[in-house]
Amino acid sequence: MSVYLLVLFLALLLHDGKAKLESQGCNSADAERAAEEAVEQINRDKTDGYILALNRLYDFSHTSNQETGSSVYNLTIDVLETQCHTISRKPWKQCEVRGIGDIPVYGECQVSVQVDAQVKLESYSCALHEVAATAVVHVCPDCPTADNLNEPVIKET
């Protein structure tokens, strides 16, 4: 503990007694803008399923390119499936997240975006999962559940 206090004291001395706070973080306006725009672009890229909504941004790294004036953000975001199908092409902010009775789907996306005047999605990888049927039944005993939504009978229905 005393080593930690010594390091903190030395850091304050090196900065003339003024602590400098970094404005970059998961709650920064730039990170939120990058995450929101990344979800929009992921949804534009989707050809099937439902539109994804941003749930939470929880991992964030940022590198700046001084020559081009752009920045690259690497984000890890949680997403939730909405009730809007991708065919609708609605913005995710206009769609309601699927409720517990609709067999909700959640996931995590690893995203890399370049930000200058615009936000450009460079790469992404999303892993989506259905909420377990046992969790749905626990919260909503009368809600229908399916073991496999890809079964032909369920798709047809």
UniProtKB/TrEMBL annotation:
The segment(s) forming the Cystatin domain are 27-115
What start and end residues bound the annotated signal peptide? 1-19
Q: Does the keyword Disulfide bond apply?
A: yes
Keyword entries, A-Z: Disulfide bond, Glycoprotein, Signal
Q: Which is a Pfam family this sequence falls into?
A: Cystatin
Query: Does RNA-binding appear among the keywords?
Result: no
PANTHER family given in the database record = FETUIN, FETUIN-B PRECURSOR
Q: What is this protein called?
A: Cystatin domain-containing protein
User: Per the UniProt entry, what species is this protein from, by scientific name?
Assistant: Characodon lateralis
Q: Which lineage? A: Eukaryota, Metazoa, Chordata, Craniata, Vertebrata
